[in-house]
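Translate sequence into structure tokens.
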Amino acid sequence: MFELLGISPQALISQLLIGLINGSFYALLSLGLAVIFGLLNVINFTHGALYMLGAMVAWIGLTQVGGWVGMPDLQLPYWLALVVAPLVVGLFSIVIEKTMLKRLYHLDHLYGLLLTFGLALVIEGLFRHWFGVLGNSYPVPDLLRGGMRVNELFIPWYRLWVVGMALAACFATWFFIERTNLGSLLRAGTENPRLLQALGVNVPLIITLTYGAGCALAAFAGVLAAPIYQVTAIMGSDLIIVVFAVVVIGGMGSIAGSILTGLGLGVIEGLTKVFYPQASSVSIFVIMIIVLLIKPAGLFGKVR
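Result follows.
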């Protein structure tokens, strides 16, 4: 059947895999946005810059830090970068929350959006000044090099690793928020923070840690993406608009909606590249328009 359409099964499966990989990044990034908006009511436009920052921390640790300290052989292993980069970005985000964002919680969402948008421009501008706009390569770790061949299709191990890790991180975040006692406190803190604080719960600390964790998810996605895409100062700005569209389609603040919608739209985008390549770059936005016309709160969202 596919041959009649001028499409080989190998090309279809290849685009499905690419779509699933892109969908994994969409899911991870939109999940972080959904956590921050759903629990803090902050539209975090720095998310794309923090995704870039995670990839940059991994790349700097592997290729630059040894030269900076006079030890050329000193490198940050990929496996350690998966932990270090999210921690660094999470701590940086906590500083932002403590010094800037906490002053805006009682104001309209627009103020938080403008602040985080300005911060994203500053972060990207600094890294563009320091490292330029040319892409920097980050090698695939030795353990994940190579792949498997299915008929004429070659599937790299690292691509499968990315999909698996993204799904594991998404499930772990959903389970933590929806199925644990601390997750219940997080959700209760968004409904009635004064009552929760009267019961002895440190609500400001919960808010701070939630923001840091949501931003750490973006950095984790950046480390996963670094061996696949070129690490550049503008890699986050190229992605953040699509991720916001994913969040809107899934429903602002919906954890499950972000995960399912991110994966689904990645696959749809991949299929669009097979059957109608000219529309692949706008397919997600067309879906967003249709969804908003039918259900303004998103597929899984609730009217606030």
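Note: The chain has one domain: 9-294.
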